[in-house]
Specification:
InterPro entries: Peptidase_M50. The chain is of the alpha/beta class. It has eleven helices and seven strands. Helix 2 crosses helix 3, helix 6 packs antiparallel against helix 7 and helix 6 runs antiparallel to helix 8.
C-alpha cells in the first residue's frame, strides 16, 4: 500500500505489516502498533539519509515487520564500503532511539505502557537486523565483507541462503509458540515474509553480477587505481566460466594457455566482458583476439 512521498522517496507499507497492524487493532493495542510503525519508519529513513549523504540514489522504501527494504541504485552493492555504512545506519538509529528512550524515562518523559514497548521495539529490530542474512542489514554487511573473496553473485547467494534458513527457524518457532499459546501470529508472519524477501534477494543475484561486469569502467574511473587480479585459463574454457571468479574493486588479467600449458596470450577484463556481451557465455576464451606479452 502506497503511503505517500517523503524526502523525495516513495513510501509503501507491505501487506504483512498492514496485517500485523490489523492484529494490534483487533487485540486493542493499536497504540503499540503505531509505535512499531514509527520505529520501523525511522529505521528506514536513517538508511535513506545515509545513502543520500553518500550520493547513492534512493528509489523507494517498503516498510516490513522487521525493518523494511530501502531500494537504492544497484551501484551501492558494487561499493562494499558504502553498503556497510548505509546498512549500519538503520540499527544505529535504533540504538540512538533506545538511548533517548532511556534518557526520557530518567527525566520523567515516560508512558507506562508504550514506553517499555518503544524500548523493546528498538532493541528487537536492531538485534534482528544484525543477523548476517539478507535482506537484513547484517546480511548486507556480510555480503560486503565477502566482496574481496568472491563475486557479488556468490556473496548474495550465501547471504540470502542464510536468510532463508533463519526464516525457516523463525517460522518453526513461531508455529510452535502459536500452538502452545506462547506467541501470536506476528512471529509466524515475520518469518514467512523474511523467507519471501530472502528468496527475492537471491533471485536478484544474477542481475547484480551483470551490473558488476558492466560497471567496471565506472569503478575504475571512480577509484582511479585498482589492484590487478591475475587468472590462468585454458583456451577452450567458455567465457561464462571465466567471469565467475571476477571480484569487486579488482581488475582482472587472464593468461590463456593450451592443453600443453603453452602460453597463447592474455586478455583484460574489459576485453572478456566485451566478448561475453557480443558472443555470449559459451564462446571459448581462446576464440577472442589475444594480446601478446
Amino acid at each position: 500500500m502506497r503511503l505517500g512521498r517523503f524526502m523525495g522517496v516513495e513510501l509503501y507499507l507491505n501487506t504483512f505489516f498492514l496485517a500485523l497492524l490489523g492484529l494490534f487493532f483487533v487485540a486493542g493495542i493499536l497504540g503499540k502498533g503505531l509505535v512499531a510503525f514509527a520505529v520501523v519508519l525511522l529505521h528506514e529513513l536513517a538508511h535513506v539519509a545515509c545513502a543520500r549523504y553518500l550520493g547513492v540514489p534512493v528509489k523507494e522504501v517498503e516498510l516490513l515487520p522487521f525493518g523494511g527494504v530501502t531500494r537504492m541504485g544497484s551501484e551501492l552493492v558494487l561499493d562494499p564500503v558504502k553498503e556497510v555504512y548505509v546498512a549500519a545506519a538503520g540499527p544505529l538509529c535504533n540504538v540512538v532511539m533506545l538511548l533517548l528512550g532511556l534518557a526520557g524515562r530518567n527525566y520523567g518523559l515516560w508512558h507506562e505502557e508504550l514506553g517499555p514497548f518503544f524500548l523493546q521495539c528498538n532493541l528487537l529490530i536492531a538485534a534482528f537486523n544484525l543477523l548476517p542474512a539478507l535482506p537484513l542489514d547484517g546480511g548486507r554487511v556480510y555480503r560486503a565483507s565477502l566482496a574481496g573473496q568472491m563475486s557479488v553473485k556468490e556473496a548474495t547467494y550465501r547471504a540470502a541462503t542464510l536468510g532463508q534458513i533463519i526464516a525457516g527457524i523463525v517460522v518453526v518457532l513461531g508455529s510452535l509458540g502459536l500452538l502452545l499459546g506462547l506467541t501470536g501470529l506476528d512471529i509466524l508472519l515475520t518469518g514467512l515474509f523474511l523467507f519471501f524477501a530472502a528468496t527475492r534477494e537471491r533471485s536478484m543475484a544474477p542481475y547484480l553480477f551483470v551490473g558488476q561486469l558492466a560497471g567496471k569502467k565506472e569503478e575504475i574511473i571512480r577509484a582511479g587505481v585498482l589492484p590487478v587480479q591475475p587468472l590462468v585459463a585454458l583456451e577452450d574454457v567458455p567465457l561464462g566460466k571465466i567471469v565467475r571468479p571476477f571480484l569487486l574493486q579488482k581488475f582482472h588479467l587472464v593468461l590463456v594457455i593450451d592443453r600443453q600449458w603453452r602460453y597463447k596470450g592474455f586478455l583484460t577484463e574489459a576485453q572478456i566482458v566485451d566478448g561475453l556481451l557480443t558472443h555470449g557465455l559459451d564462446l571459448p576464451v581462446g576464440r577472442l583476439p589475444l594480446n601478446p606479452l
